[in-house]
Request: fold
Amino acid sequence: MASAAAGPVAIVGCGLIGRSWAMLFASGGFKVKLYDIEQQQITDALESIRKEMKVLEQSGALKGTLSADQQLSLITGCSNLQEAVEGAMHIQECAPENLGVKKKIFARLDALVGDDVVLGSSTSCLRPSELFAGLAHRRQCIVAHPVNPPYFVPLVELVPHPETAPATVDRTHALMQKIGQSPVRVLKEVDGFALNRLQYAVISEAWRLVQEGVVSPSDLDLVVSDGLGLRYAFLGPLETMHLNAEGMQSYCDRYGEGMKRVLKTFGPIPEFSGATAEKVHQAMCAKVPADPEHLAARRQWRDECLRRLASLKSQMPPQ
Reply:
């Protein structure tokens, strides 16, 4: 396993994901340059990071061994891309999820960097072979897709394209581990990577169940939050199968035909619009009104739940 290279990190884009990456890298002791084209965006991001780190420190949830002030001293802003990436050993792009926008950013980065830096993208679903096509440094390019909110959900999907150098994957894997994340290697390119393919499969069937009147939107969410989600916080679906019988082969022998029978009844891909969308929207708004204040409060509650869950998981004995 390659060790994480030493040196500063550059974050391109200082929205929610960019700010989260900056905090994570600072928690690992890395100097971070946070780049954006608008100076006000940088100023706002640095202030947001300062406030959040102080709250995390006060609640005992700050990552790493450094104090909030020590971590904050590692993060600086920069509105000049060339200055931001100078000397960086890892550059993490966090621009809006638009192929054209991201390709323009990587074209600029390609012209600025040397052969010793990893170019990572935070894209959640754009194919890396399309994103990095034509770049001179494409062997140094990789998707490192975090999960929102990255500070509390440690998974990072590492998705190479066919020309990504194995050393790029190894080095990024080691870097993610160093900052306390949980990297997984997606071994070949596929739409949606692994996480979103699983997530969209669940969302699709959830939508069909509501659309067909099988269950209400609120009860559907309970099926996950008070059912599947509790198991899946500690065990993946494959290990769940393994433990719910006398091993995986036993599970397949016992339940395989039943699973296939049910799977054959799954309907077509939903449109995610019309009457069902309105029904789900009304149900969600009854629980959490869709205004900025209520949504922000609910996200804060969600993040605190995830923080406590992460703390519990860290206390469990390793298996």
